[in-house]
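Bumping my old thread because nobody answered last time. Still need a sequence for this structure:
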């Protein structure tokens, strides 16, 4: 049964407890029974916590998987079959389809002013608790991050406001990214820098991106699944390469 107020389109990624208590609820429960009940209660609480991560008015596809402990702001959009690992915070931004977002990732968090007399929000934010400004005196100066399709973001990475990450990019664990990331590049470090390209050939990168496989229906994805492990074969079967590049791959 869905908890009251829970969105109906979120995919459950944690196991829900479906067992009933057979021990009864008497006052003289032994230690073993209490432990069992505590474990069952823990499962229920984790299930409720899981359902609380997605606001009802957010634009998250029904196939998206969000693990426990994560929080997603109402303005965030996430495309189909993307997943979000444990304890990840997504405060703003748009995320494409088939993205792999690991645990402890921060995306699109609000920034603080650094040029004023204080960095604390009491003087500029009416939303701050207790001591707060009656009006907004400062606003976010950078746009929410834009994350393309098939992007992999490693554990503990931070994606700042203003970042634009193109399709197929890889963000290494622990990296901090706040600028443009080319398609199928591998970025690492603080600040994030180009380490290499996951797909080194320029023509292959272009052809792979133009195929736009993340827009295919499920049947076609299943049919092509065996070819995903080899970029050249995949592009040859499903893409259109310039004639010179096609000859090179065939030779």
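Sorry it took so long. Here it is:
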């Amino acid at each position: 049964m869905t908890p009251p107020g829970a969105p109906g389109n979120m995919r459950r990624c944690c196991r829900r407890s479906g067992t009933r208590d057979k021990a009864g609820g008497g006052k003289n429960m032994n230690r073993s029974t209490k432990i069992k009940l505590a474990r069952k209660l823990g499962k229920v609480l984790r299930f409720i916590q899981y359902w609380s991560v997605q606001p009802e008015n957010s634009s998250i596809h029904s196939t998206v998987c969000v693990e426990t402990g994560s929080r997603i702001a109402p303005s965030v959009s996430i495309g189909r079959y993307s997943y979000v690992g444990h304890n990840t915070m997504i405060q703003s931004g748009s995320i494409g389809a088939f993205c792999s977002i690991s645990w402890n990732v921060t995306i699109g968090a609000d920034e603080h002013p650094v040029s004023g007399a204080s960095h604390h929000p009491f003087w500029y934010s009416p939303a701050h608790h207790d001591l707060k400004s009656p009006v907004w005196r400062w606003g976010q100066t950078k746009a929410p991050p834009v994350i393309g399709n098939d992007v992999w973001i490693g554990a503990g990475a931070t994606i700042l406001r203003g970042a634009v990450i193109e399709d197929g990019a890889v963000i290494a664990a622990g990296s901090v990214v706040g600028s443009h990331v080319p398609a199928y590049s591998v970025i690492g470090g603080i600040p994030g820098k180009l380490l290499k390209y996951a797909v080194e050939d320029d023509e292959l990168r272009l052809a792979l991106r133009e195929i736009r496989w993340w827009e295919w229906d499920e049947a076609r994805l299943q049919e092509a699944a065996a070819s995903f492990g080899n970029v050249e074969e995949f592009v040859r079967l499903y893409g259109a390469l310039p004639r010179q590049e096609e000859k090179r791959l065939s030779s």
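The first strand starts at residue 59 and ends at 60. Let me know if any region looks off to you.
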